[in-house]
Amino acid sequence: MEKKRKKILIEASGAHVHLTAEAIEALFGKGAALKKRRDLSQPGEYLSEQRVKLVTKDGCVENVAVLGPPRTAVQVELSRTDCRRLGLKAPVNLSGNLEGASDVMMIGTHGEIRADGSVIVARNHIHMRPQDALEYGVSDGQKVRVEIESDRKVIFEDVPVRVKESFAPAMHIDFDEANACGYRVGTEAFILYDTPCERKGMTVMDMEQLIQQVVKNVCAILEEEKGCREKVSEGSGTAASEDGGMPLKAAPCPEVICEKLVTEKMAKGYVESCRGETLRFAKGTIITPAARDIFRAGHKKTEIL
After folding, report:
1. Pairing with 58, which of 66, 127, 133, 194 sits 20 to 30 Å away (CA)?
2. Which helix (H) or strand (E) holds 210?
3. Contact 115, 73 (CB under 8 A)
4. 3-class DSSP state for residue 300?
5. Which is nearest to 18 in space by CA: 45, 38, 37, 41?
6. Which residue intervals of 57-206 are DSSP H helices?
């Protein structure tokens, strides 16, 4: 007997951030506002022209989209693969729930902020208006099963429904989930109204296990692509502080300074201790805007090899 089901639009979302008005000014300059690039499917929401860089001591994710309009709290939505790249263990929460959220440094074109308690892995969910919920026979907060019709067919279990007058009916998943279920634009999804079952001998896939395998595979590729840091020439090293590489005392700078992130505090240390006119940093080093200002004020040139 054919399963009873009803079609729902499905969309995949990449890494993105929501910012407060204060964060927008801190990252993009005093008086800055988000510049709309295009509208998103949910009414009133849009993709902006601005981008940010997310940084931790373990890595960075560049060119992260900024969505508008401004919100009352900074929120960073990443996939598990993104979190592994940054060395974060963020909770899987519905958007707006920052309980247990992880910390990250965010860098814009004019400055940076510490976005503490902002990083989550957004839980898949369905948006609906009250009239849509009535049509689908569901209610706000209800959890449903959703079948994805693709060449890697899976069923998402316990997908929460969020009902609000300003919503448009759609299910949102992240890129890890999209890769796991073979999502492409136009892929069809259906809310199921029966009990879990097997169909034509095909067992429903364990979605959580599949996503974990996708994350593991992607992270393995990232590790292979990650180049080893350039070694400091023998005898040219300098003592470093415990808070991230700032020299403790005046000494010749290494030929190549190996840092993931150079902050304002670290820049002051290098200006004071390094005698050369040009400071050379290893490939991939991120120098914050505030640190660049310190180097310019100290008449130091910087070079990324």
Report:
1. 66
2. helix 207-225
3. no
4. coil
5. 45
6. 80-86, 130-136, 175-180
Tokens of 123: 């839980």
| Helix, strand, coil share (%) of the chain residues, nearest 5 | 20, 35, 45
Task: Record the tokens describing residue 287, joined without a space.
Answer: 């120098």
pTM of the model: 0.68
Q: What are φ and ψ of residue 223, in 5° steps?
A: -65, -40
- The tokens describing 83, both together, are 């979190």
* Residue 3 per-residue DSSP state: P
Distance CA 199, CA 190 (A): 15
Contact between residue 190 and residue 56 where contact means Cβ atoms under 8 Å apart: no
Residue 256 identity = V
How confident is the model over 29-68, as pLDDT tens digits?
Answer: 999 999 999 999 999 999 999 999 999 999 999 999 999 9
